[in-house]
Amino acid sequence: MSHEGIRFVSAEQAAQAPEQRLPIEAVTPAKVRVYKTEGTGVEIDWKDGHKSQWSFHWLRHGCPCATCHEEREHSGRKLGEAKPKPQTLLPMYEAPVRPLEVIPTGNYAVKFKWSDGHESGIYSWEYLRRVCQCEACLAKS
């Protein structure tokens, strides 16, 4: 018995309508700018003329890796939303998470090594386009 072509999904995913494949121009960057030194984030100009940008804070908390995805599903956190900090008598300052390294992954993605030690998320161009944070895209969701 062959299992080729079988894909396992959660009940929530099964209930959702299948995602339409985006046109190649929509998921192909014309220009990618990573403002690592400035610590501000990433901007992408797409071949279809659309422009997207994300802060590093959003990208770290919107990590697409399986561990982060499952934790968000379990806790109910939204993409890009930080985990709530435990209540303490004296809150401690925590430096914002920033990328220590930005690594191109083939022609389809970018990967970050974060200052908090996390580095398993691969941010595909399609994923980044689907989670665009511009006003027009947020209004559609």
UniProtKB/TrEMBL annotation:
Keywords: Iron, Metal-binding
UniProt keyword annotation of Iron present: yes
Coiled-coil stretches: none
Ranges where the Gamma-butyrobetaine hydroxylase-like N-terminal domain occurs: 36-129
GO MF terms held by the record: metal ion binding
Family annotation (InterPro entries): GBBH-like_N, GBBH-like_N_sf
Pfam family, one: GBBH-like_N
Domain of life: Bacteria
Keyword Membrane applies: no
PANTHER family noted in UniProt: OS02G0197800 PROTEIN
Entry protein name: DUF971 family protein
